[in-house]
Amino acid sequence: MFYRVYIKDLINWRKRVNRKPLVLRGARQVGKTSLVHTFGENFNQYIYLNLEKPSDLKIFQDFDDINDLVQAIFLSNNKSLQEIDTLIFIDEIQAYPLAMEMLRYFYEEYPQLHIIVAGSLLESVFKTDISFPVGRVEFLPIRPVSFQEFLMALNENQVLNTLNTVPVPYFAHQILLKLFNTYTLIGGMPEIVQKYTETKDISSLSKTFESILVPYIEDVSKYAKNTTQANVLRHIIKTAMNKAGQRITFEGFGNSNYKSREVVEAFRTLEKTFFLQLIYPITNTQLPLIPNIKKSPRLQLLDTGLVNYFIGIQQELLINDDLTDAYKGNVIEHIVYQEIRTIKKSMIDRQYFWVREKNTSSAEVDLIVPYKNILIPIEIKSGAAGRLRSLHQFIDRANHNFAVRVYAGKLSLEEHQTIAGKKYKLLNLPYYAISKIEEYLNWAFQDNHK
Question: What is d(CA 267, CA 275) in angstroms, rounded to the nearest whole number?
C-alpha cells in the first residue's frame, strides 16, 4: 500500500499528551484498515482485532471489566502488557456495539495505550442504545485518495514538489494537467490507484471497479430498517451515479414512484455511510454560512472514478483535454468538490454553492469557500471572464471584490468588472491546484497583488 497523508495525522495523534481513542470514519474501501496496518509498523507492539472474526469477538463478549478485557487482549495475542508503546486496532467494531462503550474505559484507565477503531457500518452502532463515550474519543474522517496522494503513488515526487510551489511554475502546467486528467478519470479509491500504479493500464481496472461497486448494492440490507427502505436505497445507489454533480429533487427521484419522505430518509442513511453527500445552497453573500435546506441540493458521490466507470464516460474523458467540456461539466465540478473534501479534517465541515432564484432571473455559483471573514465565490468552467454572469451577481451583492475561476488554463490574477460596473479581481486557478486553494488565496491577497 502506498503512503497516505493521513499517516501525518496519526503521528500527531500519537504525540498528543491527552490522547483519546481515535475513531476512523469513512466509506467502505477507502483504505482505513491498510492505513492503520502501515501506521502499526511504527510501534513496538501492534495488536489487530477484527470483531467480525469469532475469536476476536469472543474476547469482548466474555469480559465486560476493562482490566480483564485488556489482560485477555494482550494474552490472546502473545503481547506484553508492560510494553506501553502498543497500538491496538479494533476493526469492524460495529459487529459488537458494546465494544464502543469500552472506549471510555480505555481512555480513563489505560491512557498509555494507543487505541484506534474503525468499521464499515459505524452508523449502526450510533443508532443503538449503547452509552456512546462522548468527550472520550476523537474522530478522523478518511477520504478517497487526493491528487497529491495520487502523485505520491506514482512516485512523481518532482511533480508533487512543483504542485506544492505557490505560485505553480508555468512550465509545469501541461504535465500537471495531464496527470490530473488521469486522476479524474480513475478516481481516488485506493485499490484502483494501487492497481493503476502497477499496470498503467486503465482498461485493466474494470474488474476492480466492479468489485468495489457491487458490495455497495448488495449490502443495502445492512443499512435498511425494513424491506421497503432497502428497495429505496438500492434504487438510489443505482440511480445516483447518473445524477452526480447535479441538483436533484426528492419526489420521484430517478423516475421512480417513491415519495419525497422515503427518498429523503434513504439519502440521509446513505450520507451516514459516506457513500454520498447532499450539498445545499446558500442565498447570502456574507458570513455566517446558512444552508437553505428548502432548495434543491447538489448530489456528490463518494468518488468521481466510480461515477465515470458506472455511467460509461471514461472514453469521453480520455479524449478531452479540458474536463469542463466533459459530461456537461459535471465531472470537473464533481472532482473539484472531491478534492476540497480531502483537505477538510473535521467531521462537521460542509460544502456549499450559491443560488439566487427569482421569478425574473436565476443565478448559481458552483462553490463557496469561507476565507477569513469573507465568502469567496468559485466558478468551475472555461470561457471568458465576461461570461461569468452568476459570479458577477454574487460580487455585486458581496462585501468584497474578489472571485475565483477554476479552469484548464494557466494561473493568473486579473482585474475585471461586473456587468453592473463593480470592479473585482479574478484569480484564474488551474483545476489541479484546487486543493491548495487557501495558499493561493493567501498569495492573491498579498500586498503586492492588491
Answer: 10
Task: For domain 6-141, give the fold.
Answer: Rossmann fold (3.40.50)
Say if CB 355 and CB 293 are below 8 A apart.
no
Low-confidence residues in the chain, pLDDT < 50: 448-450
User: How many CB atoms lie under 10 A from the CB of residue 297?
Assistant: 19
Order of all β-strands in the sheet with 138-141 = 45-50, 86-91, 114-117, 22-25, 138-141
User: Cα 145 vs. chain centroid, distance in angstroms?
Assistant: 9
Question: CA-CA distance, 309 to 187, in Å (whole number)?
Answer: 10
> For residue 76, which of 110, 44, 48, 43 has the smallest C-alpha distance?
48
Backbone angles phi, psi at 229, to 5 degrees: -65, -35
CA distances from 359 to 283, 284, 356, 362, 363 (A): 15, 18, 10, 8, 11
Residue 276 near residue 28 (C-beta atoms within 8 A): no
DSSP for 52-90 reads TSHHHHHHHHH--SHHHHHHHHHHHTT--TT--SEEEEE
Give residue limits of the domains in the chain: 6-141, 147-342, 352-449
Q: Pairing state of beta strands 412-417 and 374-380?
A: unpaired
Predicted pLDDT of residue 359 = 65
Per-residue pLDDT at 351: 93
**Buried (b) or exposed (e) across 333-370, using 16+ Cβ within 10 A?**
bbbbbbbbbbbeeeeeeebbbbbbeeeeeebbbbbbbe
DSSP 225-292: SSHHHHHHHHHHHHHHGGGTTSB--STTTTT----HHHHHHHHHHHHHTTSEEEE-EE--SSSS--B-
CA of 417: how far to CAs of 361, 385, 389, 391, 423, in Å? 20, 9, 11, 11, 4
Helix (H), strand (E) at residue 424: strand 423-430
pTM score of the predicted model: 0.91
| 205-214 pLDDT, tens digit each | 999 999 999 8
C-alpha torsion sign, points 13, 48, 26, 308: positive
